[in-house]
Amino acid sequence: MATTIVARDVDMTFDGGVEALAQVNVAIEAGSFVSIVGPSGCGKSTFLRLVSGLTQASRGSIEVDGSVPSEVRRQRRHLSYVLQDATLLDWRRVATNVALPLELRGTAQSETDQRVEACLQLVGLQDMAHLYPHQLSGGMRMRVSIARALVTDPGLLLMDEPFGALDEISRQRLNDDLLALWCQRQWTCLFVTHSVQEAVFLSQRVMVMTPRPGQIRAVHDVDFPYPRPRSLRTDPAFGRLVARVSEDLVSAEQDTGALAGGLQI
């Protein structure tokens, strides 16, 4: 089942008085793919941590399918998190890295084996199950990380700049693969990136944030139909939308007081 996210008047202030987020109001529909772009330090990753239940907001509320994120996390409901670094365990083979979330849940070995095999097939690494992380390329390690996130069959996938460290060819290939998986599984995806082009290519909507304290500056609908071919990246209409989002990003940096509160994305 896909997952709905609702944030109401969310503020986040860290110890020492650093304001990371201010008055964030969003509603993300189940099954949608939404990207967040904004300058470094604007609170993009902080917002993902709040949604995941790793951090609690200073003010306001966040609900994931009607529950507070910490409760969702405690109940081990269908939420997965992918970071910029693949964070694989070097002493575990590919298959056992992917199996780790199921092991922690006490899933039966027979079911674990079936799920791991299926997820490795999804990301095209079924022939790499016996290898160790150091034997893989950066792109392959990220595929393993995605397979590990998918092995629990999540309704919500949080992705924090997962392809930021990859070369452009690997990044575009993984964008294509991620979209194919999303079209097949229809989980809710909240995707943080510094790349406007990546955000537009992947998403149904792109949310632009201001510098700290992060506020929602604008939300852009992306109406290109799925599946999206690689050739879309060279389409003039695609370029125009990338330019508009980029302009809003620049405006957000210049106008930190702009606020588009209450946006439904």
Summarize the structure in words:
- The structure is a single chain.
- With 265 residues, this protein is α/β, with parallel strands linked by helices.
- The chain folds into two domains: 5-78 and 155-264, P-loop containing nucleotide triphosphate hydrolases (Rossmann fold), CATH 3.40.50.300; 86-153, no CATH class.
- Helices cover 37% and strands 22% of the residues.
- The protein is built from eight helices and ten strands.
- The strands form two sheets. A six-stranded mixed β-sheet has the order 5-6-7-3-8-9, sandwiched between helices.
- A hairpin with a 5-residue loop joins strand 1 and strand 2 (19-28).
- Helix 3 (94-105) crosses helix 4 and helix 7 (196-202) packs across helix 8 (236-254).
- The longest helix has 19 residues, at 236-254.
- It is globular, with a radius of gyration of 18 Å.
